[in-house]
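Explain this one:

_____
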Amino acid sequence: MQMMKRVTLGGMMTLLATTAMAVETPGGGMEEQASGGMPQLDFANPLMLSQVVWLLIIFGILYYVLAHVVLPRFDSVLEDRRARIQGDLEAARLAKAEADAAMEAHRAASAKSRADAQAAITEALASAQADAGAKSAVLNAKLNEQIAAAEARIAAARDAAMGALREVATDTTGALVQRLAGLNEPAAVQAAVQRELAAQGRA
C-alpha cells in the first residue's frame, strides 16, 4: 500500500510515454510485425496502441482513486476500529480494576462485620454472665437468709418443744415418785430428768 502511494499520476504518464516510444521504430515509422504474430500483441496497429494508452489512463485513474479516496477511507475505518478496540480494552481494564476494588472493599467490610459481630457476641455473653452472677449472688444471699431464718425458727421450736418436754417429764416423774414413794423432791426429780434427756441427746 505504501509503495502504491509513492507512485504519482505524473509517474504513470511518464510510464505511458515510455511505452509508446518503445513501440516506434528508430526511423520514426512503426515496426512491422510478422504476419503470423498474435493480434493482441500487434503494436503496429494504431487501434491497439490507443487501447493500450486508454488502458494506462484508466489504470492511472483507478490507481489515483484507490490511493487517494478508497484506501484512505479503509485506513480511517481500520484506525477507528483499532481505536474502538483499544478503548474497549481500556474500559474493560478499568472495569476489572473497579470490580477488584469493589471485591476487596466487600471482603474488608465482611471481615469488619464478622469482627464486630464476634465482639458484640462476646460482650453480650460477658454481660449475661455478669448479670447471671449478680442475680445468683442475690438469690444465694436470699436463700442463706431464708435458711438462717428457718434454722432459727426450727431451733426456737426445738427449744420450745424440749422445754415443754422437760416440763412434762418433770411433772410426770414427780407425780409418779410422790404416788409410788410418797416423796416430794422437785429438785431431785428435775435433775434426774435433765440427766436422762442429756443422755438421750434431747437436752
About this structure: Residues 1-7, 23-36 have pLDDT under 50 and may be disordered. Residues 46-181 form the longest helix (136 residues). The two ends are 134 Å apart (CA to CA).
